[in-house]
C-alpha cells in the first residue's frame, strides 16, 4: 500500500517546486536582460576564450554546462564552440559541456521538483511514470535522437522516475550524432572562411559536411518511421 504523504512533506515539496520556478524564471531574466547577454555571441565568447589561454577548453565547458542550466539555447553554444575550436575539438568540448549541463539540469529538476510532481501524479499518470522508469534508457535515447528540446528535457526527466544511469547513458549516446554533425558543419565552414580559400567550398569535405547537416533534419523522421514499424 502506498503511504500517504504527511502535510509537512507536502509543504516541503511545494516550497521546493516554488524554488524551481523561481530558478527558471531568474535564469531567463538573467540571460535576456543582464550584461551577460553581450558575451553570448561568437565575438564575445571568442574574447573570453582568448583571455583564458590554455584554459580555454575548460572555460568553454564550464560556460556551456552553466549556460544549459540557465536555459541558454544549446544550438547557440554549440555553434560558437564549433567556430572557436573547429570540427574535431569543437565536438569534444561541446559533448562534454552538454553532458555536464544535462546532468546539472536533471539534478536540479529532481531535487526541487520531483516530490511535487509525484504528489500530482494520479493512477493514470503513474503508469506512464512507471513505464519511464522501466524503459528509461530507450525513452531518453529516442527523445534525444528526435531532437526534443534539450534543456526542458533535462529538467523534465528529473521530475520522472527515470534512473540516473539510464538518463546519463541515453543522453550521452543520443546527442553524439547531432553534436558531431552540427560541429563538423560549422567548424568546416569556419575553417574555409578563415583561410580565405574560397575554392575549398567545393571540396568533398565541405559537401560532406553540408550533406550531414541536411541529413540531420531527417533523423527524427527516420527514427519515428522505424519505431512505428517496430513498436
TrEMBL record:
It is a multi-pass membrane protein. Keywords: Cell membrane, Membrane, Transmembrane, Transmembrane helix. GO terms for cellular component: plasma membrane. The chain crosses the membrane at residues 17-34, 54-76, 88-108, 128-147, 167-186, 206-223. Residues 72-186 form the VTT domain. It comes from the Bacteria. It is found in: Cell membrane. Belongs to the TVP38/TMEM64 family. This is TVP38/TMEM64 family membrane protein.
